[in-house]
Write a structure and sequence with these properties.
Chain lengths: 436, 436
């Protein structure tokens, strides 16, 4: 048989990570141009922007998670593998994982970020972060258990501590958590308990920068702080916590605040970026070339929270899901063209189009009817911003099975102030303080 | 001040356990007749009859659980306490728990059952039972993870073992699990995977008695077995497993079957029954007096799965939720009458009305459109039985917040054969065999 008659084998693309970047790549890549294997250590894609709602018992885990296999079921030439990637052999073009290794022609790295404690890894067990479903369920468990313990605690000082929640970090996640917890205590839990008064729960938000939501314009930061304070949240800005211990935080002036501690102060790129032999920033993010490729490896693309990049327009690309999705689309466009046009990739990186971020605006929600939003030059606060936030997130959930369920839960929650997801599961983890 | 002028303090009833028995008691007891404290170690009531649907990824945890505080929010003179009861002081009328102790005038015991391994407690870690939400999530995790591992397993023998599910125990729970797993593999998972063929998954149901559903009439047992076999389940009756080890079961003839093992063979009463100094049966259930009171303690009532009793009609009261609920109502009636009529409880037990069980029928579901039902002298199988089962469970869910959500999930699942709850959470527990 003549070798030239053999059907041309499709190149093999390995995508590591099925977050917004990786998943967008998989969904948009033309099915007939390559075989794709997507590897993730979880079996589900997570709708990260609503993770705080699982932590605050507003939504249940399945509302914001969807099996990767189900999302990509209809894609031809695509395989899903649940495995933990442990390393790369860039020279031999192989991904190494706990189920073996997988060879590639092209590699797309989209492992995303993880909670970072800025070198204080010992703080992790005292102050969980919020990156996975398990994190969210753990935070929910700690908060609800702590209120349960307060209900039977006779010492007023201890009871007060069990009803104190300290959120470290005033970025969007910290603001969302603090606002929603304050609201949960004052409107929902307040009707659940007999002896304690959850409306007296103390919620603190501690931020090292001079203002919350430091990446937003100053007027919106100020508005966010006012809206938080109206919910009863104590906002302390310009304070870096000095230490975190079991059930307590030490402030720079030595003040000790006791309560449940949640960490929302730092995110860094997956530690796998350290194995690639390229330059990274302090948060482990890769300094990619303008086309999103790995320096020296035009066959490797890097997406989303793994990337630090200033685009040709001078915009610093933020670590948000729209940016990750746009990067996924950019990589699809470049790679599909090259594979079809048989462009040599050996020195292709130089001639490729650079990635340009399209900033659709930013928003952060603070509670029911409370939010801030920046869309172009327009700044919104309060109810209009919240409506915009609600609208954008419902649109984003398109294609996501749980859209209807999320909508039902929200409407239900909005109308009744009940929280359907207030269930404690899992007996593992640190017991609430004061229970000893 | 004259003592006779003091407002009469209400007697204090402590209810231990917020399952069907305890919760019915709390809901039905007249608010003005006593103060009630209900103690449970979980913060939620569980709709046990649908727990197998959480294990088989058909429903999510919140669909079948509801916070106890939310259910009983509107009851006056009632407090909910989340605590683990560790013992009783019947002479001093005190309940001892991990948050302290609570005195009572009347005590209602409704702690329910737990998985029993018939003295083989070492089997527990190899073969989880199905009594709590955490159990259900653990079983789901094991099964889904095992299929994920099969997908990347190259050894055909190991792959086959990773796709083998062994359910030990052919009562209603075992039949429901085996039938639903077979259906899940053949209709849902079959479309998720690329390399393995989940329709070739092997599901075994092993029962020690000569037939499955031994408490049902023989014709329905035979029908259930036929319906299971039609789904591809291998049913082995009259076989007591000899041993259970990591990822394998040893049959009486020495045959070794390797696969994921799930235990549905035994339930016993809460071990707290052993502390009461009264006679119990082999499964730890209390031989109560005909009025449901504890022998020698007319101020203590025992409900639900804690009880072994033959009623005046000669019916052995079964360990099912309708029986527990009827017992709760019976205790309400007797206690409310006594408290209002100031009947002395010292020797009241003798004069009290005995509990009579009203058998509304029994049903077990096997899969989509497959079930058996016995209502009086009528025996149903297949589709009519399944419709009856569906109808009864929807009616039962009345008052339960999740009714609408369960209904939506079911309809969705029925129409599309998708499973929205196919999410793996929690990294704890035994790793699936073959992954090492």
């Amino acid at each position: 048989m003549d070798a030239s008659e053999k059907p041309r084998t499709l190149p093999h693309i390995v995508v590591v990570g099925a977050g917004f970047g990786g998943l967008t790549f998989c969904r948009k890549f033309p099915e007939d141009a390559a075989r794709i294997t997507v590897i993730d250590r979880q079996n589900h894609h997570l709708f990260q922007p609503l993770l705080y709602q699982v932590a605050t018992a507003g939504l249940s885990a399945v509302d914001i998670a969807q099996p990767i296999r189900a999302i990509l079921r209809r894609k031809k030439n695509l395989e899903v593998m649940m495995a933990e990637v442990t390393g790369f052999d860039l020279a031999a073009r192989k991904v190494i994982h706990d189920r073996g290794e997988t060879s590639y022609d092209y590699l797309v790295l989209a492992m995303g970020g993880r909670t970072s404690y800025f070198g204080h890894d010992d703080w992790e067990r005292f102050a969980p972060g919020l990156k996975s479903l398990d994190d969210a369920l753990e935070i929910r468990r700690r908060v609800l258990m702590s209120f349960e313990c307060a209900e039977t605690e006779s010492d007023p000082q201890k009871r007060r501590e069990l009803m104190t929640l300290i959120v470290v970090g005033g970025g969007p996640t910290g603001v969302e958590l603090a606002g929603t917890f304050a609201e949960l205590a004052r409107t929902v839990l307040v009707r659940d308990f007999d002896r304690i008064d959850p409306s007296k729960a103390r919620v603190l938000l501690i931020e090292g920068a001079p203002r919350v939501l430091a990446h937003f314009p100053p007027d919106l930061s100020a508005s966010a702080q006012r809206q938080l304070e109206r919910l009863g949240v104590e906002v302390r800005v310009g304070k870096h916590v000095k230490a975190i211990r079991h059930h307590e935080v030490e402030m720079p002036d030595g003040e000790i605040i006791r309560g449940i501690v949640i960490w929302a102060a730092g995110v860094s790129a997956s530690p796998l970026t350290q194995q690639l032999g390229v330059e990274t920033d302090r948060a482990g993010r890769i300094k990619v070339l303008p086309d999103l490729s790995l320096p020296g490896h035009p066959e490797v693309f890097v997406l989303g929270d793994l990337v630090t990049l200033t685009d040709p327009k001078g915009q610093v690309v933020p670590g948000v899901s729209p940016a990750a999705m746009q990067m996924g689309e950019h990589a699809v466009k470049l790679l599909a063209e090259e594979i079809r046009g048989r462009t040599s990739t050996t020195n292709a990186a130089a001639g490729r189009a650079p990635f340009v971020y399209w900033d659709k605006g930013s928003m952060a929600t603070i509670g029911r009817s409370k939010a801030v939003a920046e869309i172009g030059r327009l700044h919104f606060s309060g109810y209009p911003a919240w409506m915009a936030w609600l609208f954008v997130h419902l649109i984003f959930l398109v294609g996501f099975r749980s859209k209807f369920s999320v909508f039902v839960q929200w409407v239900y929650s909005y109308l009744t102030y009940k929280r359907g997801a207030r269930i404690i599961t899992g007996a593992t983890g640190t017991p609430p303080a004061g229970s000893a």
